[in-house]
Amino acid sequence: MFINPYESLNNPGRWMKANFHTHAGTGPNTCGAYEIDDVVRLYKEAGYDVLAITNHDCMIDVGEYQSKYDILLFNGFEYSQDRHMLCIDADRTVFGNHQDVLDEVGSMGGFSILCHPNWIVKEYWPWEEISKLSGYTGIEVYNSVIFRLNGTGLAADTWDYLLSRGSLVWGFADDDFHRWFDLARSWNVVYAPARTREDVKAAIIGGCFYATTGLVLNSFSLEDGVIALSAGLWDSYVKDNEYRFIGKDGQILDIQHGESGKYRIKGDETYIRVQVVSEHGAMLWTQPVYDGDLLSRP
User: Fold this and answer.
1) Separation of alpha carbons 69 and 258, rounded Å
2) Residues 239-264: tens digit of each pLDDT
3) Is 279 inside any structural domain?
4) Is there a domain that residue 251 lies in?
5) In a domain, 239, yes or no
6) CA atoms within 13 A on the CB side of 252
7) pTM of this prediction?
8) Measuring CA to CA, which residue among 146, 76, 154 is closest to residue 112?
9) Where are the alpha helices (DSSP H) in the chain?
């Protein structure tokens, strides 16, 4: 049976713009350049609804800024003792090996995202090492700050590797904000009943969100074995985009051009995810429609 992570689009709710990788504050380990107040204000002005502050191995309580700027803020930290992970909505900073940290963050009701899998070198996060982990929610399929550093911020190869081996992980796009010119270069758009901590986390865990560098998902459905979607630029006369339907091991199942895309499931696919590309290179990644008998949470 193929499962559509966007099934809840049939229910009342709202789309919310979110970033889960943000460095703010000028104290030790923050890796930031500006005070938290300024960073939160900038994200609010850029149209964000949800923001996590994730400094290196330290947590700063940002609750005081939530009502001030009318934005849903998550406390969190970026685990940096070894290969980096975002630990969102944890109660405190956790140290130890990766699995122990994932377990502890999960026990606190938080969720974790593996950071920039191709930073510095291909497989900064070795695939075999990731395959041994459990309890994380997803990976950064796109990290925009890496494109001004080393390696590549794109990690679709890691995503397809994990999905193809039965690990149901979601793809995130994050700014990894450090300086003002990192703001709003990539983001996640979450669909949830309301802008509450519980609803947003449930949507993230369930995969009802997409990652983007500028494109907007207008519609997504799975009916009678057909995946149908449309995406575009916000309020633009440009309607045509490229729709790439991608399956196991990153195989391109179909490429279509136009205002929308459709793919009829054959039945032997492990998963089908869609990458939409605009005329100027902006991209959007949907979460995969998947065979529930073949994929499960790591």
Assistant:
1) 39
2) 899 999 999 999 999 999 999 999 99
3) no
4) no
5) no
6) 8
7) 0.97
8) 76
9) 36-45, 63-69, 98-107, 127-131, 156-164, 197-206
Q: What angle do CA 17, 18, 19 make, to 5 degrees?
A: 145
Domain holding 10: CATH number? 3.20.20.140
Decide if 211 contacts 186 (C-beta within 8 A): yes
| DSSP annotation of 244 | E
Among 284, 268, 153, 152, smallest CA distance to 231 is for 284
> What is the mean pLDDT of the segment spanning 20-29?
86
- Domain assignment of residue 191, given as a range: 2-212
Residue 181 CB contacts under 8 Å (≥ 6 apart), including other chains: none
Question: Could you give the CA distance from residue 240 to residue 230 in angstroms, rounded to a whole number?
Answer: 10
The total number of structural domains that make up the chain: 1
Residue-wise pLDDT for 194-248, tens only, equals 999 999 999 999 999 999 999 999 999 999 999 999 999 878 888 899 999 999 9
Nearest-Å Rg of the Cα atoms of the chain is: 18
Report how far apart, in Å, the C-alpha atoms of 92 and of each of 58, 75, 108, 177, 215 are. 8, 9, 9, 21, 35
Q: Concatenated DSSP letters for 187-227?
A: EEEEEESSSSHHHHHHHHHHT-EEEESS-EEEEEEEETTEE
Task: Take residue 279 and report the two structure tokens written for it.
Answer: 């005329």
Adjacent-strand bridge partners of 72? 50
- The phi, psi pair for 7, rounded to 5°, reads -60, -35
Do the beta carbons of residue 60 and residue 72 sit within 8 Å? no
- 183-199 core/surface letters (b: 16 or more CB in 10 A; e: else): bbbbbbbbbbeeeeeeb
- Asked if residues 154 and 141 have their Cβ atoms less than 8 Å apart, the reply is yes
Q: Does residue 267 form part of some domain?
A: no
